[in-house]
Write a structure and sequence with these properties.
There is one protein chain. By secondary structure, the chain is an alpha+beta fold. The protein contains 3 helices and 8 strands. The chain has helices at 26-41, 125-137, 157-162; strands at 46-48, 58-61, 69-80, 83-89, 92-101, 104-110, 116-122, 153-154. Strand 6 and strand 7 (116-122) form a beta hairpin.
Length: 168
């Protein structure tokens, strides 16, 4: 496994819509392992393939006290409600902003073995992370939801260590 280099706002790969994984081969397994290691090294809650320079439809999420969720070819199948929450991103380091996210999110995906599953989250960090990572897979950053970049809140250096992607 390896820690991969993160891509930051302004990198064109972050704006590309990802392509589906057609075959769960060794290269996909290696990508998943490397993404998990990279997410942990960066103290993130989630990581999508574009954030490490890959245009593949793969994301990983690790909410504290839970198992890592691997999402291959994920799709949001249901969203309900709205809530305003503070959000940050590993690809936009040093800043957070308040954005609107769904209260409840259901995603269907393949796991790392290629088996179909669904994950449902309501009014928690997982729901936020699911939407955030799905946005990355569609070439969207959380800052796209802001009316102005003036809405970004600069973090103090000591706070930056505590902020992880998708955490409020």
């Amino acid at each position: 496994m390896a820690v991969l280099g993160l891509r930051f706002a302004g990198d064109p790969v972050l704006r590309q819509k990802t392509h589906a994984i057609k075959k769960m081969d060794a290269s996909v397994q290696r990508l998943i392992d490397d993404m998990i290691e990279t997410m942990h090294a960066a103290h993130g809650v989630g990581l999508a393939a574009p954030q490490v320079g890959r245009s593949e439809r793969v994301a990983v999420i690790h909410v504290p006290e839970e198992e890592v969720i691997v999402l291959v070819n994920p799709q949001i199948v249901k969203r309900l409600g709205e809530r305003r929450i503070e959000e940050g991103c590993l690809s936009v380091p040093g800043y957070v902003a308040e954005v609107t996210r769904s209260e409840s999110v259901t995603v269907k995906a393949l796991d790392r073995e290629g088996k179909s599953f669904r994950v449902k989250a309501r009014d928690d960090l997982l729901a936020q992370a699911l939407e955030h990572e799905m946005d990355h897979l569609n070439g969207v950053l959380y800052v796209d939801y802001l009316e102005s970049m003036d809405q970004l809140i600069k973090l103090e250096p000591r706070e930056e260590v505590a902020v992880v992607e998708g955490e409020s």
